[in-house]
Amino acid sequence: MVDNQIRVGVVEDNGLLRVALSSSLEKEAVDVVFSVGTALGALELIGKSSIDVLIVDLHLGETINGIDVSLLWQKAQPNLGVVYLTSYEDPRLINGGKSPVLAEKSVYLTKTSITDIDQLLSAITSTMGEGTVDERVRTGPLAGLTDVQMETLSLLALGHSNNEIAKIRGINEDSVAMSLNRISKVLGLPAQMNRNQRVHLARVILKGQGQ
């Protein structure tokens, strides 16, 4: 291994993608110190492995998500850079619609935005510079929604009725209906809140999650 070789850890629950990602990085002379498929596997390596950058998916199919993993790793290694590589076009989707606290010196990339390995390498190196990197530009139809609107939409996608959403948010049912109409307007959907419209709104969330 070369002395100045970048050392990365990969946390990705999709086995095929994890292998392909690790292989592509190694071909670019990046030292893949570890490549694991679970949050627990990544956390067990804290204090045992030393890396420069953590590449982590948001959704790992467990109670602990990729953001939690990155924050715990960065607490142990304050200078660690983090690249979030995920199918979630908006990080709020992993947090019930609320804006999560992301790691310092982090870059947020969607898997569909990466067309070649150079883009990923650029993101990796940008997290290793001095100062704070904060590339969290929201894209896609959900970018125009406020955190409150995202929370409402997330609750709808989980199958909650307007009445249930109202109770969870501590507002009345009419306010929920008005909020959903505003969300529909932002997303460019008709504002009539019938059953089909609720399905369309739920699909926006699912699409944002890469499903």
Give an overview in words.
This protein has 211 residues and is of the alpha/beta class. It contains eight helices and six strands; from the N terminus they run βαβαβαββαβαααα. The protein has a six-stranded parallel sheet with strand order 2-1-3-4-5-6, with helices on both faces. Helix 3 links the parallel strand 3 (53-56) and strand 4. Helix 5 (147-157) crosses helix 8 (195-208) and helix 6 crosses helix 7. The N and C termini lie far apart (39 Å).
List the keywords.
single chain; six-stranded parallel β-sheet; elongated; alpha/beta; 13% strand; 41% helix; 211 residues
Gist?
With 211 residues, this protein is of the alpha/beta class. The protein has helices at residues 15-27, 39-43, 66-76, 117-126, 147-157, 162-169, 173-187, 195-208, and strands at residues 7-11, 31-36, 53-56, 81-86, 106-110, 134-135.
Q: What is the structural class?
A: alpha/beta
- Which stretches are poorly predicted, pLDDT < 50 over at least 5 residues? none
Q: Care to count the β-strands?
A: 6
- What is the helix content? 40-55%
Task: Spell the H/E element sequence.
Answer: EHEHEHEEHEHHHH
Counted by DSSP, the helix tally is 8
Q: What global shape is seen? A: elongated
**Mean pLDDT figure:** 88
- Kindly, what is the distance between the CA atoms of the first and last residues, rounded to a whole number of angstroms? 39 Å
The main pleated sheet reads as: 6 strands, parallel
| Beta-strand share of residues | 5-15%
- Spatial sequence of strands, sheet with the most strands: 2-1-3-4-5-6
> How many whole angstroms does the radius of gyration measure?
19 Å
